Amino acid sequence: MKQPTDNGQRSANERYERRLGRRAFVKLGILAAAAISSPAAAFAAGKRGSAMEKSLAFYSTHTGEKLKTVYWADGHYLAPSLREINYILRDPRNDEIRDIDTQLLDLLFALCGAIDARQSFHIISGYRSPATNAFLRAHSSGVAKNSLHLVGQAIDIRCPGRDLRVVQKAAMALQRGGVGYYPKSDFVHVDTGRVRYW
Q: Least crowded by CB within 10 Å, which of 4, 48, 51, 125?
């Protein structure tokens, strides 16, 4: 059986490219590359053309508050949205607020795409004040003295509809910081510190 030649394959590609039009062909290539790296990124890029948006949704297990917001658009973090995120991720014991690391938000956005999350991240612990951290250290094990929760660089989450082990493995694959697995307490810890797992 005669094998197709490179020239035959090339002319077929050229016919396909002409049929689509050069711009559509290039756009499909960009979306395909984005889909390989992040399904959520591909969806956002397709929705708004070249101006991608990043959004997150949260549900606070302590206060019952919900937030869904676009926090990054057209190459910029959006200050009003960051303030809303800082608020919902505040320490619920004393309502103390701290700026949340934008790298942590980007990590969560990437994680959302990796696990194809359909629901809000349920927040077990976001920012943690020194007083709360000291209290938790005195009453439970596994709470670090210099926790990254103290500086807005860590969050403990679960994602309804996604197995905890799937969330853990996806976070580990991102290689963007620490990942802790707490099946008894039903949450995964992620942070923007050095890459490490426990």
A: 4
